[in-house]
Amino acid sequence: MPADRLFLVRHGQTASNVAQTLGASHDDPLDEVGEAQAQAVAAHFAGLYLEAPAVYASPFRRARQTAQAIADALCVPMTVLPGVQEIEVGPLWHGRPYTHLVTHVAELDLSDGTFGFQGGETLEGVADRFLAALEQPLTAAETPIVVSHGGALTAVLARLLDQEIRTLWHDQRYSHRNTAVTELEQTEEGWQAVRLGDTGHLSTR
């Protein structure tokens, strides 16, 4: 990844988030709260006065809407970035409650030794495609802001910060509330977290 500073953002709230169910439609839009969250995180980025900000989004509607709010606030274009979309949970997990990710976590230990969703994607596979996507359009002159999804962000952060994905999934230390912001910097030792899952921009609303 050419850039040495990277912002990762989860999309704003949707009806599926409120219902706490897995496998939301790709076209699931922000609800009224999510739209307000998107405006709040957009104002936050506008106040950072970043050098050469570039806004990227998962192809899913909720991420595109959140990213567009940020891009509008920064007066830059928004670019859809295939590869940073949410985990495909597959038919066996579709519609199940979020709580099953904790109470039924043993089901994520697959018979081939990987960790993920039977009939869907593994967390390792999600990290692979996410990082491959980041290699494509980003340049050293940009400060990229990538709007993605909760599960996908956990997967890629585990890889970037050299953490074991099973441990992270259990303790949820990299979980992101809606529009939470993570800021990373590239150092000689690799990527380091400046902040993780920050939602300070929502505290004033």
Model description:
With 205 residues, this protein is of the alpha/beta class. Helices cover 34% and strands 18% of the residues. The protein has one domain: Rossmann fold. The chain has seven helices and six strands. Strand 5 and strand 6 form a beta hairpin. It is globular and about 45 Å long. The mean pLDDT is 93.
Task: Throw out a few tags for this protein.
single chain, 205 residues, alpha/beta, Rossmann fold, 34% helix, 18% strand, globular
Structural domain count: 1
Q: What's the total count of β strands? A: 6
For CATH, the homologous superfamily is named as Phosphoglycerate mutase-like
Distance between the termini: 35 Å
User: What is the share of helical residues?
Assistant: 25-40%
CATH class: Alpha Beta
CATH architecture: 3-Layer(aba) Sandwich
CATH topology: Rossmann fold
Largest sheet: 6 strands, mixed
Written as H for each helix and E for each strand, in order along the chain, the element string is: EHHEHEHHEHHEE
| Count of discrete alpha- or pi-helical segments spanning 4 or more residues | 7
Cα Rg: 16 Å
Low-confidence regions? none
What overall form do the CA principal axes indicate?
globular
Query: Order of strands in the sheet with the most strands?
Result: 3-2-4-1-5-6
